[in-house]
Amino acid sequence: xxxxxxxxxxxxxxxxxxxxxxxxxxxxxxxxxxxxxxxxxxxxxxxxxxxxxxxxxxxxxxxxxxxxxxxxxxxxxxxxxxxxxxxxxxxxxxxxxxxxxxxxxxxxxxxxxxxxxxxxxxxxxxxxxxxxxxxxxxxxxxxxxxxxxxxxxxxxxxxxxxxxxxxxxxxxxxxxxxxxxxxxxxx
Length: 187
Ligand code: HEC
Hints:
Helices cover 53% and strands 4% of the residues. The protein is mainly α.
């Protein structure tokens, strides 16, 4: 094939045209894109993560980080912090609002218990301290309707609702009969 343009036979209104061959690099690129497209489609299942795989990967990554975050959060919550928060009206009213929104179906509005235990009496099922109350709320009680609320709300909300829950103890509102061991009201 010669690179010399060939003058085509036809003429329209006196205008003639050359038959210019496409430059070699252009044709090569054109064929290369076709070869690439087939190779890409054929190989993509092996080379590129499917959305499902990408999702699983991201989830594993997230769970790993979440465990570390939870550990870090738990380390920052202490008996002292919960006691201080239980005396902080701002935290307590935030906790009360969360309790009203999330906990009332099982513990009732004033905490005297229904499906869940009476939180106002002087008995505790799990542990004895404020931190035990927090831990139960955060981690739930497996095999019972009590969820792991740490998975449902941000850590600060769990702390607030736990602080609020500790203020209920000792109100002794008649309701569900005592469960667990006898404890003192929190100061
Ligand atoms: C679906 C019902 C349900 C909901 C909603 C629920 N709980 Fe519970 N809760 C329970 C049950 C049942 C138990 C007792 C578990 C057991 O048998 O150990 C419990 C136990 C507890 C305990 C432990 C009491 C103790 O004596 O050790 C605390 C504290 C508590 N819940 C607080 C909360 C808070 C705060 C919320 C809202 C964020 C909440 N619960 C929401 C059902 C529920």
